[in-house]
Amino acid sequence: xxxxxxxxxxxxxxxxxxxxxxxxxxxxxxxxxxxxxxxxxxxxxxxxxxxxxxxxxxxxxxxxxxxxxxxxxxxxxxxxxxxxxxxxxxxxxxxxxxxxxxxxxxxxxxxxxxxxxxxxxxxxxxxxxxxxxxxxxxxxxxxxxxxxxxxxxxxxxxxxxxxxxxxxxxxxxxxxxxxxxxxxxxxxxxxxxxxxxxxxxxxxxxxxxx
Amino acid sequence: xxxxxxxxxxxxxxxxxxxxxxxxxxxxxxxxxxxxxxxxxxxxxxxxxxxxxxxxxxxxxxxxxxxxxxxxxxxxxxxxxxxxxxxxxxxxxxxxxxxxxxxxxxxxxxxxxxxxxxxxxxxxxxxxxxxxxxxxxxxxxxxxxxxxxxxxxxxxxxxxxxxxxxxxxxxxxxxxxxxxxxxxxxxxxxxxxxxxxxxxxxxxxxxxxxxxxxxxxxxxxxxxxxxxxxxxxxxxxxxxxxxxxxxxxxxxxxxxxxxxxxxx
Lengths: 210, 264
What we know:
Structural class of chain B: alpha/beta
Number of strands of chain A: 0
Number of helices of chain A: 9
Largest sheet of chain A: none
Mean pLDDT of chain A: 93
Helix content of chain A: over 70%
Distance between the termini of chain B: 55 Å
Oligomer: heterodimer
């Protein structure tokens, strides 16, 4: 049976798992941005915290994903549903690129521009929202882009703990020693990653200041 | 010792817009950038701070709009200690132009110039009128209002920087080598225009430069700084005949420079 035949015969399930996959990645990226951007901004104001915070985020990244899913199983509330564990793990992995790029992006804003803004009497909030964040936005999006591509790949492993997504096909195919079934999960996952990379890349380019 | 009054000191002179009283500025980890500065800037004058890099010129400037606060002593702005001003109010009351201009690259010229008015909540209509007026004042075409800073030449950008500093009609201007990064011709042009502008507007201005020619051209007085100390204050006329060794050295270098340029 070819891959096309498999897709044709299992259209509903392919669609279902793709949606699950997207949902997992989407929710976790939203949470990672909601946490990571404020933390990155905070680091620019408390620069002594930069090394410890980025260090912790870095260490999290080094934990093998399968192990991280396992570690989170006994966690209260989170551990009760496989999808919650998957989302939390994806958030943890996504934090480093989001925090780091927010920090680097804001620190990279031309000092003369920030100085002029302060000298003209902008409040810290005005400076952040009207100057620093808009000028750092393309760098922040670049971080979100990296995090998203990583998440799309990592989310396939979430199937190992029963969280669903395109990894279902991959693990099923592995168990059945059937390459077509593995590819039925791997190819759409790869396409999603490429699509996210391309789309966010466009956005990043559009938002890049002169 | 003077009392650290929180209100307008009884001895504050009404003709003085900015006054430094025994002002020192030290860094947190040692190092003193400014030693016991005493200096008064009169209303309507253009006082030049002249000195090499590291002499404390920029530090002095930033103490006026509270980008820095003195470690000891007082900076009186309009008779009130700078630390008694709300920094945001104080800065909106003082025009600020710097060498790197610091135009916002994501704002067009109009939004750049209209920044302080818009922060102050002026109606849109009034901001637009003011921007048009200012563009004319600094010799720029009104069409430029919708361009981004990257589409301007260095000279145009600097003019926009000056217009932006003047936007809310502040009584005091701080200028930190605003023409320093320009080519010689454009610089001379902007200096002349700025002189005209200053003679019309009579803003109290503190102007930082390391260029004696600029100092003598623009300044009503020149304060000479070295290693964080004020050596002396001169009128341009006095400066040329000053006995002070550094002043004399400046003049000598200036004359030698003019000679080579004249011979070229």
